Amino acid sequence: MPNKSRFLRVPVEPFHVEPGLGADEVVTRMERISFQGRSLATARGIWEKMLSGDCTIFLGVAGALSAGGMRLIIAHLLERRYADCLVSTGANLYHDLHETRGRRHFVGSPRANDADLQADRIDRVYDTYASEQEFCENDDWIADFVLTLERRPYTSREFLYKLGEHLWNETGADGILTAAYRAQVPIFCPAIADSSIGMGVSQARHRDASAGHIDVIGDIIESANLVIRRPRTASVVLGGGTPKNFINQASVQAEYYDDRVGGHRYAVQIVTDVPHFGGASGSSLEEAQSWGKLASDAEQVTVHADVTIALPLLASALASSASEMLAARRPPHFDLSGPVMAVEGRPLPEARFEERTK
Amino acid sequence: MPNKSRFLRVPVEPFHVEPGLGADEVVTRMERISFQGRSLATARGIWEKMLSGDCTIFLGVAGALSAGGMRLIIAHLLERRYADCLVSTGANLYHDLHETRGRRHFVGSPRANDADLQADRIDRVYDTYASEQEFCENDDWIADFVLTLERRPYTSREFLYKLGEHLWNETGADGILTAAYRAQVPIFCPAIADSSIGMGVSQARHRDASAGHIDVIGDIIESANLVIRRPRTASVVLGGGTPKNFINQASVQAEYYDDRVGGHRYAVQIVTDVPHFGGASGSSLEEAQSWGKLASDAEQVTVHADVTIALPLLASALASSASEMLAARRPPHFDLSGPVMAVEGRPLPEARFEERTK
Amino acid sequence: MPNKSRFLRVPVEPFHVEPGLGADEVVTRMERISFQGRSLATARGIWEKMLSGDCTIFLGVAGALSAGGMRLIIAHLLERRYADCLVSTGANLYHDLHETRGRRHFVGSPRANDADLQADRIDRVYDTYASEQEFCENDDWIADFVLTLERRPYTSREFLYKLGEHLWNETGADGILTAAYRAQVPIFCPAIADSSIGMGVSQARHRDASAGHIDVIGDIIESANLVIRRPRTASVVLGGGTPKNFINQASVQAEYYDDRVGGHRYAVQIVTDVPHFGGASGSSLEEAQSWGKLASDAEQVTVHADVTIALPLLASALASSASEMLAARRPPHFDLSGPVMAVEGRPLPEARFEERTK
Amino acid sequence: MPNKSRFLRVPVEPFHVEPGLGADEVVTRMERISFQGRSLATARGIWEKMLSGDCTIFLGVAGALSAGGMRLIIAHLLERRYADCLVSTGANLYHDLHETRGRRHFVGSPRANDADLQADRIDRVYDTYASEQEFCENDDWIADFVLTLERRPYTSREFLYKLGEHLWNETGADGILTAAYRAQVPIFCPAIADSSIGMGVSQARHRDASAGHIDVIGDIIESANLVIRRPRTASVVLGGGTPKNFINQASVQAEYYDDRVGGHRYAVQIVTDVPHFGGASGSSLEEAQSWGKLASDAEQVTVHADVTIALPLLASALASSASEMLAARRPPHFDLSGPVMAVEGRPLPEARFEERTK
């Protein structure tokens, strides 16, 4: 006699292993297992809904993902418009620039002798090494570039667009900054002052006091206006940090000026932090609903996993399963060349929040 | 001019996404990224070395992996002899038995109202549900089986072999217990008293005071003798807990009686616990070397990940990449039908540790 | 104008620092802060309710708490009857025995060279060292003791009582085993086979095949009968593991035979594991309600913290604030000297679950 | 016969519980236990060395510590000069301002129904609630204040000084911003654009396009110059995030211009993140040495704990044990009233890094 409880509807299907399974099929077989494997499969499904759902998709990337080998996945996601707007830490952009300029990160050990590394001027990121000397050269390169710019404040969004353009012209190489430039995908870096990109900019200031002015308050306004202009949004967050909060803040700030904004319709986060210590990085997507960062009927999932495991699998699965949705998708068209960006040919307002005539 | 530091030898290769990637290739491309993605790829490589390395491979499984949809992966690993001996929590065997008997676990929500579930007699494991009524029927089924056995103490190893045999005869269905029975792979369950398997056994005792005697001290002796008989060992641990320690303990106990035993030659653990709280589940494999649980030159890796993400990917990759090694492998042959097991036709000693004539 | 929302009732009170604050007052000031600090203060309050609430209080201890310097706190909690029944891993009892016998653990480093430690036969537990030679002597001492016992199976509860008695007679020293012996507090160790205590017992078996029989199935029955006899129970769990599950299992098993049992009335757990990987160690107390391990109206709290920080503070606070409750408490009186324990002078049944005449 | 190994020198001393223990004594008794309890006691000792060591002490605060009830501890640490410079997330300053203005956070539940909260316009931070309406009023209040300022760019440091001054003049109430103002302790907020403080500033820009310019690149320069001027530094980090990196970055940037800077001499971090996912929040202090963020002979400790448990205990202990060191301390004297701060009466350079005549 079958159990009649309303709670017992969909049985768990044990994962069957076979030789030759594709990444796509591995994720499909995770849909009916449990715990974080199921959450990862759910994330794939929600991302596909974003792609079909006429949303502006924000992608947030924190941690040391570029140094960790994820930068070409992120570039791929921007190029093919799995996402329409990137919010990043400075570190991820800096390490991307480092490799786009032809330098490398190196396979290392988490149990290295750090005094020996310091003596050799090697900087360690967990199990990955880089040359401090090469990092200093990047800083100089950034400062040189900043000094070529007109002397006025730049939002991080405009600055990074121009940096991507310069980098593409100089290297013709793939990477996050160059892919975003070519795909006209805006990048916001609200905590740019807390990164080596900011350090490079500060060295331009050192050489010329009128150089290197980044207008991060302008970033708040532009990002909120992007939401006001296209109130259907979605959020994919890899790793928490300032990108997660900035994406949510844009939604909250936009709603203040336009009540048609109602929080993200879809949300995926892949995090290792947990909610119970109260920090924003680990905060749950349920909590985000109390703030209106997320619509109360949003489809959402949190995947508790290291991005360097979850993202290669997820992106590989999507590359197979989402190709038709991507082909059918009409992503928003941006023009990023000016001090404020234009959406479908119409510029966002500068220095003020767009107020809708309702 | 290339950087000359000895630390900068092997560059990180950013992961390239393409449509149609197989699980095998996803893991291969993780070998040169960083953080836990690289660790997972390293785990694949070390497991392949175990398969080629003439080792007795111990597999430990903790957590709620069977309820979580991993039981047929574990069965697959035993059937094809990716591992030669299983150490498990009782929960994983009990939930396996539940499904092998044709009952199911169900897809649920981690944010369910647990009072409602209690009222409906639904038991929750994070995001997975099961019927308490069906669990009670399992307990009765186990008690009935126990009462068919001759009245004498059984090691958990012998008891689980007979349980698997009975289950196979009754159901003919795939699962951990039945796969282990058919492949003559021993299962140890040192904490059987802390599980529903133990509860079922205790209900047999309730019906007949002379029934249901499990000799867990005998398990210590038999597992150590297995190591003494074949001193080259390897360890794959999914999730920590008692299986992790029991596998290591067998090695330490064996070395006490035979100094040719020198700790596991290879070790892989996939855990979510961390070392810094001092518990055995999260303890590092480096620490295990201080105890001699691991050879000091062992190849080892810890993957910090949920098993329900890491194992489907890892097992799918191995199914492709390890097939030739598996075909060439000559795993140890066990006979499990007696009170003590036989290795290559020669029984292990009973009630004493094997002492080698050196 | 005050905010009228029903959700905004009790304001957070920022913690005020002053010189000379007692542990008691520190915890009191945590009652109105947030996150895990508040949870710790809540744990103190719930433990006080247990002491006033005519419950049998189970205490579970996992991890390496004895090696970590917590054993005299646990002894203190048993002696003064903050708890009435201990469920422990074997490791905590073994490391307790080691120190009660006059040996020591030592302050070490988590970044030690483990090959050097192995060469010196030093065993490491994160940042703590011990002598392997002394551990081997403990094993011999345990085996010698086992050989003095009558040749019959012993539950872990009875065995540990006799071990504590022998240890007290030999050393007269404070510790968990000796305090439990003197306070007639039962100790269950369901996973005794997965510990050095079990290894010592197995060495007695090696010397005499009729020695060293531990009846862990009997432990299931005796622990459930303890709950049936006194159906009001409470649970304090430090660190998850087998003790957490065994305490809950006793309640579930008891309810099977007596429907007046309704799950623990109060529950506190101090854990570092998290729920979202599905393992029992990290499972939430809400989830425990679905199983009936906890009454659906139970007062409960989870503290996400390392026990070595939380317990010294919590126990020191209770030593001041709970003294009157302890003085007024009438804990259950046990007699542990026989094969089954007696509660208030009346033995529990042997080899069967107590069925109530209702 | 005592064990002679060089590794076995300092025995673990089990913690003894007694009624009436002070916080100071609780921490002292943790010095000889293990795991994170010992680490917390070590943190107290290292902080005392910082106080005696003629260092500029940086304090970093991330997470939601102000909402969580920690703001008056932080204020206390600044007022009494346990630290000389604060680096904070915007959230901690915003929630501080909220309470200093007389509003409150409220005790809530982590399992609240967030749709209900959203309907009531209640914002949740894990187990803590606040009124969204009151938050909007704060934003207006900040915008009003910004519009009183001269129209020129302000570093976050200068801006927050003026904000603290205004808040003190208006409320006369204790808090982080007002304590820092009165004690002339600089506050840097490099990610100010990722916070409600930034949102308030952006609303001033909305009203007047020439208002609300924050010069975060100037913050990089001023913070590095602070290190160049006083090259002996120490770092206490609560919770990771941008403050942790910014404090380290100041040291790295300073060293670029003055090779007498050699990284922090002392470092304490209290974090819940872990190193193995590669993010900066969880990165180890050993790793920081490879970058030169920390001197290779620095005394340092990581405490893996929630700040809301560790900090009340640690600060209460220091309030007793560090009083003489504090009385004897001669902290650096800053004047914060200008666009760049002065150290001991001598202004730091503006728009350039100070280069030492060596």
Describe the SSE topology:
The structure is a homotetramer of 358-residue chains.
Chain A: H1 23-29, H2 35-52, E1 56-61, H3 71-79, E2 85-88, H4 90-100, E3 106-107, H5 114-119, E4 122-125, E5 128-131, H6 132-147, H7 156-171, H8 176-183, E6 187-188, H9 196-207, H10 216-229, E7 233-238, H11 241-257, E8 264-271, H12 285-290, E9 294-304, H13 307-321, H14 323-328, E10 334-335, E11 342-343, E12 346-347
Helix pairs in contact in A: 1-13, 2-13, 3-8, 6-9, 7-8, 10-11
Oligomer: homotetramer
Task: Give the chain pair forming the largest contact, with residue counts.
Answer: A-D, 83 and 82 residues
Give Rg of chain A in angstroms: 21 Å
What is the element string of chain A, with H for helices and E for strands?
HHEHEHEHEEHHHEHHEHEHEHHEEE
Structural class of chain A: alpha/beta
Number of distinct helices of chain A: 14
Q: What is this structure, in a nutshell?
A:
Four copies of one chain form a homotetramer. Helix content of chain A is 45%, strand content 15%.
